[in-house]
Amino acid sequence: MDNQKKYAGNHGRKPKPDKMRHRYVFRLDDGDNARFLALFDESGKATKAEFIVSALFGREIKVIKLDKG
Q1: Is the dihedral of CA 40, 44, 49, 51 positive or negative?
Q2: Domain spans of the chain?
Q3: What whole-number distance in Å separates Cα of residue 6 and Cα of residue 18?
Q4: Burial annotation 33-45 (CB, 10 A radius, 16+ → b, else e)
Q5: pLDDT in tens, 3-44
Q6: d(CA 57, CA 6)
Q7: Is the pLDDT of residue 1 over 70?
Q8: At 49, which helix (H) or strand (E)?
Q9: How many CA atoms lie within 13 A of 65 on its CB side?
Q10: What is the mean pLDDT of residues 37-64?
């Protein structure tokens, strides 16, 4: 019985050291989806997630704050 308890949790996939836990969802219309797929094909990335991450964090993003005071 002690043997069963000892090895009970050793099933399945090994946990990754840095899990990707956060997920974001956005919706596109037909035109934007066609443009997205064209950009994805041009990028040569293996997955769409990899393409989106490289597009967001691979280049500088400028933020403009307006002071309405």
Answers
A1: negative
A2: 22-57
A3: 26
A4: eeeeeeebeeeeb
A5: 666 656 677 888 888 888 899 999 999 999 999 999 999 999
A6: 43
A7: no
A8: helix 48-57
A9: 2
A10: 89
Amino acid at 57: F
Contacts of residue 48, Cβ cutoff 8 Å, sequence gap at least 6: 40
Q: DSSP secondary structure string, 5-24?
A: HHTTT--SPPPPSS------
**pLDDT given for residue 7 in this prediction:** 57
Spatial distance between the Cα atoms of 36 and 42, rounded to a whole number of angstroms: 10
Question: Cα–Cα distance between 14 and 9 in angstroms, integer?
Answer: 11
Token pair of 2 as six digits:
């002690």
Instruction: Count the Cβ atoms, other than its own, within 10 Å of residue 51.
Output: 19
